Amino acid sequence: MDDLDRALARLAEAPAPAALEGIENRILARIGSRPAVRGAGLGIGVITAVALGIGIVGAELPATASPVVSLAPLGAASPLAPSALLIGEP
Known about the structure:
- Keywords: Membrane, Transmembrane, Transmembrane helix.
- The chain crosses the membrane at residues 36-59.
- By secondary structure, this protein is mainly alpha-helical.
- Helices cover 54% and strands 0% of the residues.
- The chain has helices at residues 3-13, 23-33, 40-60, 82-87.
- The model has no long low-confidence stretch (mean pLDDT 81).
């Protein structure tokens, strides 16, 4: 057995500190004395509904048309070709 095992064995055999006596009752009493938070579910519901509405409206709006650029490697000059990128020309 090494030092860690001996230390853990001593800790397991030691009695519990007196400060821990009745800690469950004290914790439950403090939890019970806190005021209940109400209305948080309503706020989250409203935010969810607004986000859903924005998503639906955004999906229905037509996107603006952009010019079609050929990215074929063997076709016309590609804007992503290394030579075009090095020169800085489209």
